Amino acid sequence: MKMEFDRRWLDPDKAGTDLAARAAEIAADPQLMAECFGGELEFGTAGLRGILDAGTARMNRLTVGKATQGLAQVLQEEYEDPGVAIAYDSRHFSREFAEEAAGILAANGVHVWIYPELMPPPALSYAVRELGCQSGIMITASHNPPEYNGYKVYDHTGGQIVSGFARRVSSAIAAVDPFDGVRRSSLEEGLQNGSIEYLTQEFINGYIKAVLQLQLEPGLYRESGLKIAYSPLNGAGHKSVIAALSQAGLEEIYVVADQSRPNGDFPTCPSPNPENPDTMKMTIDLGKYIRADIAFATDPDSDRIGVTAPEADGSWRLFTGNELGVLLLDYICRQRTAQGTMPAHPVAVMSIVSTPMAARVAEHWGVELRRVLTGFKYIGDVMNQLVEAGEPERFLMGFEESCGYLTGLHVRDKDAVNAALLVCEMAAHYKMEGKTLCQVMDELYAQYGTYYTKADSFAFAGAGAMERMGAVMDRLRREQLPEIAGAAVAGFTDYRNIAATGLPAADVLTWELEDGCAVTARPSGTEPKLKLYFTVRADNREACLQRYEALRTAMTGAAGL
Predict the structure, then answer these.
(1) Catalytic residue among 90, 125, 142, 195
(2) Cα–Cα nearest to 427, from 247, 277, 228, 253
(3) What is the spatial distance between Cα 52 and Cα 276, in angstroms, rounded to a whole number?
(4) What is the DSSP letter of 200?
(5) If DSSP codes are grouped into helix, strand and coil, which group holds residue 458?
(6) Segments in 291-400 forming alpha helices (H)
(7) In this model, does residue 1 exceed pLDDT 50?
(8) Considering the entire predicted model, what is its pTM?
(9) In terms of Cα–Cα distance, which of 136, 173, 170, 150 is closest to 60?
(10) pLDDT band for position 4 (cuts 50, 70, 90)
């Protein structure tokens, strides 16, 4: 039985020739109809993210137009003469969606500044802040597979929008007719009348300069002779990362040739996530070939970084996001203490699913470690609080277990350009001490104990996927597990309980076990994917891995995954 849907999707004059033709194909397939037209693409706290295709539940020109019209209306209601900055990455239709959004905003009386080339999200955050914009739009699906794209919305602070603003925008979007309710003009028209401006190379250089100012030991690269291998994973990072490293004085930079140019198909790594060992293979291979000191990759939008380094036996270790966060936190504290630049009452910030090992490191260096909900906007909130209190100097760094890091106040989002520069500086510093990053990590484990963290994702497919995922969370919440894999549950936290956590309400569950391990369940806010986060502490890595396997088996069974 065919699903009823708005037949304007079949009208080339309304939907456009390509979308209309694709909608006709979908209308002949009941399963596709359910997937593409069975609901609306949900505008979450980070914006939109979905598979590229025709349909109300897919990313396309009409869903982007609907979202942009809603955003424009909220901005016009809340601000006088609002302005928006726009950036985009290398994904399919990223530039087209960015230009579509720019034209719609301009038609609604919103001034637009748009980057003329691929730029990472931190550059978008920088533009919002530097230009005094009221909002920003980043067209990206981050590290999702090639069939995805997304639409992230930022507020006036340069951070991704928080729940109150998101709800207002979401309500406005819901009321927009995507065919007849969107005011449109072209990018060219906006450029001609001055309502749209391209950001200049000088402005781009300003972002790079802001990142360079975050170095702790300027000039160290030339002394150390550091050699690196780098891959932008066919994304937006190439120009910005290379510019920052080169201007910092790093001379031996080798780039993975097949992954150097922008390509939305990501032909050599269809899952372009630097946390994935398969994704990092070509980067590691180049590192081995040139005998690099480190090898790293940035994800397609270049806000996250994956780092590898050689072991003594010639193998290469891919650091987890947590390991790199601990390494950076310890290095920053070590250097700023040695240099006498450590502020009074320093603050670091991490997400609730990041490693408790960071707390041990922070305690050693006398740093207050604040824990926030998953999402870098919450780290940005802490930064804003420190600024508003007149204490911006207290902020040392923020990080998430998913390889996102920030050490400066220049932006309010994770910044892989900033992270790449600091990681290379850290590697150069330890190289001059005769150590590799692997050796330093092992020293930290010896000092603080061996920790192992792992995040496993479980996707839900087809119509009703979000509802089925929600049912899993409801079941875990009701069952009140007394033990997991033979260890009694010593503490259970439901992050919907604001009074218990002191944090905004979130659909997150954490079980703390009597043996020091922990498990957290968290659904994605943008796609039908449930994540289980495992934290294990044991005598050595082998024992950690065994315990992780036991916990994973127990939790997937309890959740019915």
Answers:
(1) 142
(2) 228
(3) 23
(4) P
(5) strand
(6) 321-339, 357-364, 376-388
(7) no
(8) 0.95
(9) 150
(10) low
> Would you tell me which CATH number, out of the four given (3.40.50.300, 2.40.400.10, 3.40.120.10, 3.30.360.10), belongs to the domain 45-199?
3.40.120.10
d(CA 360, CA 287): 32
The pair of three-digit structure tokens given for residue 98, joined into one six-digit string? 């960015």
Per-domain residue ranges for the chain? 1-38, 45-199, 208-448, 450-559
Q: Give 513's strand partners.
A: 489
Whether 170 is a known active-site residue: answer no
Q: DSSP of 460-496, one letter per residue?
A: --STTHHHHHHHHHHHHHHH--SEETTEEEEEEEETT
Nearest CA-CA partner of 427 in 272, 313, 317 = 317
Q: Which residues, 6 or more positions from 102, have their beta carbon under 8 angstroms from its beta carbon? A: 86, 112, 114, 187, 190, 196
Are the C-beta atoms of residues 105 and 84 closer than 8 Å to each other? yes
Alpha-helical (H) ranges within 147-271 are 163-174, 187-193, 201-212, 220-224, 237-248
* Alpha carbon separation from 42 to 49, 64, 66, 523 (Å, rounded): 8, 12, 12, 14
CA 55 to chain CA centroid, nearest Å: 26
The first and second tokens of residue 23, run together, are: 């909608």
Residue 508 to residue 493: CA distance in whole angstroms: 8
Q: What are phi and psi of 255, to 5 degrees?
A: -110, 140
Tokens of 552: 């994973």
Three-state DSSP at 355 gives: coil
Query: How far is 91 from 550, CA to CA, in rounded Å?
Result: 38
For residue range 487-544, what is the model confidence (pLDDT) as tens digits?
Answer: 999 999 999 999 989 999 999 999 999 999 999 999 986 678 899 999 999 989 999 9
Please state which of the four CATH numbers 3.20.20.60, 3.90.226.10, 3.90.1170.40, 3.40.120.10 is assigned to the domain occupying 208-448: 3.40.120.10
20 close to 9: Cβ distance less than 8 angstroms? yes
